[in-house]
Amino acid sequence: MTDIIRLLPDSLANQIAAGEVVQRPASAVKELMENAIDAGADHIELIVAEAGKSLIQVVDNGIGMTETDARMSLERHATSKIKSSEDLFAIRTMGFRGEAMASIAAVSQMEITTRQQDQELGTRIEAGASSVKEQSPCSCEKGTSIKVKNLFFNVPARRNFLKSHGVEQKHIIEEFQHIALAYPEKSFNLFIDGEEVFHLQPGKLSQRIVGLFGKSYQNQLAACSTESEFVKVRGYVGKPEFSKKTRGDQYLFVNSRFIKSHYINHAITTAYEGLLPEKQFPFFALFLELDPEHIDVNVHPTKTEIKFDDERTIYAIVRAAVKQALGTHSIMPSLDFSADVNLMRNLGQRETIKDSKYSRFQSPPAPAQGNRENWDTLFDEHLLRQGQHLDRIIDSETTEQGRSVTFQSQAGNQTESLENKPGSLLQLFNEYILSPVKSGLMVIDQRAALERVIFEKFEERADSNKSLSQHCLFPVTIDLNTADFRLVKEIEAELKGLGFNFEEFGGNTIVIQGIPVDIATENEKELFEGVIEQYKNSSDELGLSVREKTLRAYARRSSLQGKRKMNAVEMEELVGRLFRCKNPNYTPGGKPTFKLVERKTIETFFN
Question: What does the radius of gyration of the chain's CA atoms come to, in whole angstroms?
Fold first, then answer.
């Protein structure tokens, strides 16, 4: 039998390595900017064209490279930052693997110019597809300039998997923000398609946050600082009233390296317990500093995931630091002693249980009083008969005989009967609508149903080019950060197609003069920003057009008003509109709008 195992050619091995290190243009931006930081640069410029697909250039004023180092930087596993295995557990630099430059050069056309301060001439290298095309001396500024052109030109399959310019540009801006946020003492410039997007001067962390995310952050920052023998925590957390529906503005750094950690995020979030509305998330930019021997950063190719050797201690310290920051700024809630709980219990005055959540101080009603006080929280007093169209949605071959179920009434000892006929609508927890059907019980998610209804309604308007707008009583001014402002410009036509009427007002500011009709809101700013946040969350979904993503974002954001108390007429209208939709079963994102609990399942509850 002939031998079948052979060594891969260097060019192919580099392409495989590039698949891990260089997943998109933003990956190359991250690696090149980290190298500039490690080179001691205090001024870094990032120049991008066509979302990094045609050009990524990083220019720094760092120490530069010798002719030999410049050539060696393109070799696999070549690095100046690791000499022994012990160095892996004492890493304080950013890039260290020695694969980034070789991997990027394997899937692009690269040009390097570099000069050290004590040298008269620098070095220029042209490389492409893992091979050096030319190397020569040149005249250039001190530091290093690296151009990456035509990324993935020799791997068309990878290039086809890249997203739209807007999505890739968003990821590049995020990587730029991570580096700029970690080093406020350095200056940074970002140019996109010839336009200067960021011009950041050295300053304090608070100034860098405002420079990156906008003036609206000036009034929402609470300083956070604590120090122990194990870890030092510093940075800023956002005040609860400025929280958002998404996690977008949350930045965690360990030894100045941006990381993602659900565990530490949970510690921060629990510090806000009792301060945040449901499903809202605060801003934070926190920096943890600890001895590198307590962490392992070599867990993931992008180095955004790390391991701590003592996660519990880190968790406790971070949580305590955030709670202290909130307490120092008088943000923590005060206890309410206005009600004498013991007196209320002695008088037999029990509050009605709201939202199905039992109060800590409530006791269940005495058996002698029956259960009549709790039924009104589960069912509306006025039950309407919905049309038989609900049953046509459910494919059932069996027919139940109508039967009566008797509950104790609130009024004295009289009884009321609810005939279990299809079409009767009940509300549960202010979130769900219940409807008996022939095969069992249908449970409809109010928010999901409203999302489907709104999506199809505005999709129909978009198809017919009939955008309807209602004027704001007063124009609303919104200061956006640079990334969001560019996103708004990208999807401006789609937003105006929904019914948003707005204009630019200089800088990154827009003025909203109108919003879509049929939306009941007293906060146009919150609605508009919420749609942008939802769009950013869905921007990575494959195969969706800009219009589709905008419609989904708007429907998702507007459907939040669906979680509320509804009267019988409102429930009837929502259910009727849902089942008149083309696809009533699912939200645009694929979540079910209703579930059927079959009779057999219900019967098992009592067997």
Answer: 30
CB atoms < 10 A from the CB of 436, how many?
Answer: 23
How far is the C-alpha of 51 from the C-alpha of 193, rounded, in Å?
Answer: 8
The enclosing H or E element of 308 equals strand 307-308
Same domain, 227 and 184: no
Spatial CA neighbour of 103 closest among 38, 32, 178: 32
Residue 299: per-residue pLDDT: 53
The three-class DSSP label of residue 70 is helix
Residue 280, pLDDT score:
84
Q: Residue 386: helix, strand or coil by DSSP?
A: coil
Task: With respect to residue 548, please indicate whether it lies within any of the assigned structural domains.
Answer: yes
pTM, full prediction: 0.71
Residue 82 is predicted with a pLDDT of 59
Strand order in the sheet with 426-428: 426-428, 432-437, 440-445, 594-598
Query: Which structural domain, as residue segments, surrounds residue 62?
Result: 10-203
Does residue 121 sit in the same domain as residue 230? no
Same domain, 465 and 556: yes
> Is 422 within the bounds of a domain?
yes
| Same domain assignment for residues 175 and 53 | yes
Pull the structure tokens for residue 531.
């749609």
Residue among 129, 102, 82, 112 at smallest CA distance from 17 = 102
* Intervals of the chain under pLDDT 50: 96-97, 333-422
In this prediction, residue 95 carries a pLDDT of: 56
Q: How distant, in Å, are the alpha carbons of 41, 162, 273, 521 from that of 145?
A: 12, 25, 48, 51
- DSSP string computed for 99-141: -HHHHHHHTSEEEEEEE-TT-SSEEEEEEETTEEEEEEEE---
Q: Distance between CA atoms of 471 and 517, rounded to whole angstroms?
A: 9
Query: Burial, 465: exposed, middle or buried (Cβ in 10 Å; 0-12, 13-18, 19+)?
Result: exposed
pLDDT at site 398:
35
Provide the pLDDT for residue 314. 93
